[in-house]
Amino acid sequence: MSNVELVSIIVFFLAFYALVTNRNIIRTIIFSSLMEVSVITFWLSIGFRERLNPPILYTMADYEHIYTADPVTQALMLTAVVIGIAVTAIKTIMFITLYRKYKTTDWDLARIRKTEG
Amino acid sequence: MTNQYIENLLFYFVVSPVIIAVILYLSGANRFTRIVALLAQSTLFYFTLQNFLYVSHTNNVISSPVGGYYGFMGIVLVADMLSSMFIMLTAFIFLIATFYSFSANHSPLFWLLKFLWQASLIGIFLSGDFFNIFVLTEIATIVVTVLIMYERKNRNMYDGMIYLVISTIIVNFFVFGVGYLYRMTGTLDISLVSERVRYLYTSDLILPYALIMTFVGLKCALMPMYSWLPKAHGSKGAPSSVSAILSGLHIKSGLYLFLRFSDVFQNGGIDGSQIFLVLGIITALAGVIFAVSQTDIKLMLAYSTIAQVGLILVGLSIGDIDGYNYVGGLFHIANHAIFKACLFLGAGIISHYYHTRESTQIRGVFFEMPAISIAMILALLGIIGTPLFNGSISKYFLMSGTGWDTNIILNIVNLGTIIICIKFSAIFFGKKPNIRKKPLDIMSHGVILLLGVMCFLMGILGIQTINFLFGYSVYVNIAGYTEKAIIFFVSLMAGYVIYKAFLTKEGPAMKWIRTSEMGFRGMCFSMVAFFAFILIAVGFYN
Fold first, then answer.
1. By the CB < 8 Å criterion, does B203 face chain A?
2. A12 and B172: CB-CB below 8 Å?
3. Angle of helix B520-541 versus helix B273-292 axis, rounded to 10
4. Are residues B439 and B292 in the same domain?
5. Is the pLDDT of residue A63 over 80?
6. Residues of A with CB below 8 A from B179's CB?
7. Same domain, yes or no: B229 and B299
8. Helix (H, G, I), strand (E, B) or coil at A53
9. Do B336 and B205 belong together in one domain?
10. Which end of chain B offers a freer environment for a tag, N or C, measured as fewer CB atoms within 10 Å?
11. pLDDT mean over B98-112
12. Looking at residues A16-24, what average pLDDT do you find?
C-alpha cells in the first residue's frame, strides 16, 4: 500500500467523520467535495509508481522504452473532476436559494423551519 | 434483423433521447413539442420492444462497443435478457408518463429533463462498465433533483438539497470501490471483472464489496438509509408523473445494479445473500410500519415502495438464480412498476382535484371520478396480492419454498400492506364533496385505466407473462395457490379488523412515527452504520 493511497483513505473517512458531526450546510458542501478529492487521489495512486513518465507520446521512437503511468485512471478522473465541479456548483446554488427561504445555514434549523412552513 | 442492427440500436437508445431533449427544449412550450415528445416516446418503445423480442428469441447477449473500439479497449453497451426487459420497462413507463402529462402545459425545461433522465436510466441498464454507471447515476441525480423541485409554488428546497447531497456523497463510495476493483483486475468492464475476480483472494474483495453495496443499498433505500426516499418520492413540488417514474422505475435501477454487482462478487466467492435477505426483511417490516402511520396519500405510497423493495430483495436473495423465488422477485419488479405508477398517477389527479394530499380530508372519490377509482382499486388489489391479480402471482413465487420463519414474516408484511391499502382506500368512499367539476382529461384517465387493467391481465396471464418477460417456464401448484388464497382472505379480514380497531384514530405512537424525521447527520451516520454492518457481516460469513 503506497503512501498516497493510505492518505486518500484516511482523508476519505475523516471527511466522512466531518459530515456526520457538522450541522453547517456550507461545511457539508466543502467536506463532500473533499471526499471527492480523496477518491480522485486514490484513483491516481492506482496508476502511478515511482519513476514513471506522464502518459504522453513524445515521438514514435520513444514508444518502445518509455514506461508511463496508466492513462486510463487519469482520463477517468478528469471526468470525475468535471462532474464534481458541476455538482458542487449546483449544491452551492441550491444552498443560496435555501438560505433565502429559511435564513439559516444549519441543517436542523432548516428542517424545523420547513415543518413550521 | 441481425446482430449488427441491434448493436446499432443500443447506441441510439442512449443517444437519441438526448438529441430529442435538446430539440424539444429549443422548440419551446407549445402543442408541437408535446406531440413530438409523444411520437419520440412511442418510437423508442417500439424499438425497445423490437430489441427485447430479438434478444429473448435468439437468447444472445449483444454487446455493442461504442466508437468501434473492440476487445475491452473502450466503452461497451451490453443487452442481455434482463437489461432488455429493463429498458423496455423504462420506455413503457416514460411513454405512460408522457401520455399523462400531455395536456398539462409544461415548460420546455420539463421535457428536456425528462428525456435526459430517460437517457441516463437506459444508459445505466445497458452499461457494460463500472465507470459509465457512475457518470449516468450523477446525471440522473441532478435531473431528479431539479424535477422534484419543479413546481415553483410549493417547492421544498430542504428535501431537494438533502436528496442531492446524500446522493452525491454515496456515489463516492461507489467510485472508491470501483477503484479497488480496477487496481486488482486492471479493467472496468463488468464481464471481464467478473471473470478476473475468480483468481483473487476473497478477503481482498470484502472492502470493495462493502463500498459498492453501500451505494446500492442507498439506491434501493434499504433500512437505515431509507430517509431520502419519502422526501424525493413524496415531494410536494414534483409533478405526479415524476413521482410515478421515481417510484415505479428509478428505484429499480438500484435493484438492477444489485443484481449485476452481486453476480460479479459471487464469482469472487463473496455471497451476500444471507445479509441482504435479513436487510430485505427488516426493510419490508419497517417500510410497512412507516407507511401505516402516514396520512399523506403520496407519502403512504412512497413508504409502501420501501416495503415492496424489501420484499423484492428477499425474493432475489433466497435460493439460486433459477429458483422460483428469484423469478418471483423479478416479476414483482415489473408488477411494482405497473401498480405503483398507476397509484401515483391517480393520486396526482386526486390531489390536484381536491387541493390537498391529506387522506383524512379526501372522501368520496368513487362518486367524483369512477374511472380512476376503479383503476386504482385494481392496482391496490394487485399490490396486496389478491388471487388472480399480478401481485398474487409474484408473491406466490416469491414465498414458495421459503422456511416457515421467513414465510411468517412475509405474510406479516403482506398483512401490513393490506392495512395500508385499506387505509388508502378510505378516500374512495364516504360523503360526496362539494367541489366544482373540472373538465375531464381523457388521456391521463386513459393511461391510468390501462395500467389498472394491466394489473389484472398480468395476473390472469401470469405464467405467460413470466415466460415472455424473463424466459422462465414456471407452473403454479394449485394446492399451494389455494392455500395462499386462504391465507390472503384470512389476513384481509384480520387487516380490516386491525384497521377498524386501532388505526381509525391516530394514536401517540403513530403520530411519533409520522412526525419524527431523520436529519442530515443521522442519514450520514446511517450510511456509516450500513457500511460497517456489511463489512463485518461479509467478513464474518467469508
1. no
2. yes
3. 150
4. yes
5. no
6. 39, 42-43, 46
7. no
8. strand
9. no
10. N
11. 87
12. 91
Is B133 within a domain? no
Whether residue A44 lies within 8 A of chain B, CB to CB, comes out as no
Same domain, B374 and B316: yes
What is the distance, to the nearest Å, from the Cα of residue B197 to the centroid of all Cα atoms in its chain? 29
Indicate the SS3 state at residue B433: coil
A22 interfaces chain B, CB cutoff of 8 Å:
yes
Does B75 lie in the same domain as B165? no
pLDDT at residue A1 above 70? no
Least confident of A104-108, B317-321, B363-367, B468-472: B317-321
Terminal Cα-to-Cα distance of chain A (whole angstroms): 52
Contacts of A23 in chain B (CB under 8 A): 520-521
Tell me how far apart the 2 most distant CA atoms of chain A are, in Å.
Answer: 71
Instruction: Locate A5 and state its grid cell.
Output: 493511497
Answer yes or no: do B262 and B382 share one domain. no
- How many independent structural domains does chain B possess? 3
B135 touches chain A (CB under 8 A): yes
Closest by CA position to B155, among listed A23, A94, A104, A112: A94
Q: Is residue B138 part of a domain?
A: no
**Percent of chain B scored above 70 by pLDDT?**
98
Categorize the per-residue pLDDT at B493 as very low, low, confident or very high, splitting at 50, 70 and 90: very high
Q: Rounded mean pLDDT of B200-207? A: 90
Predicted confidence at residue A62, as pLDDT, reads 63
C-alpha torsion sign, points B165, B169, B170, B175 = positive
pLDDT tens profile B123-133: 999 998 899 99
> What class is the A3-116 domain?
mainly alpha
Whether B143 is in a domain gets the answer no
Q: Return the number of CB contacts < 8 Å for A and B.
A: 88
Nearest Cα to B424, choosing from B295, B512, B238, B239? B295
Whether chain B has a CB inside 8 Å of the CB on A3: the answer is no
Q: Is the CB of residue B160 less than 8 Å away from at least one CB of chain A?
A: yes
For chain A, domain boundaries: 3-116
Looking at the structure, do residues B397 and B258 belong to the same domain, yes or no?
no
Domain co-membership, B265 together with B287: no
Say how far apart CA B82 and CA B85 lie, in whole Å: 5
Instruction: Please give the radius of gyration of chain A, using alpha carbons only, rounded to the nearest integer.
Output: 20
Distance from CA of A46 to the nearest CA of B (A): 6
Closest approach of B521 to chain A, Cα-based (Å): 5
pLDDT number for residue B69: 80
Domain of B2?
1-128
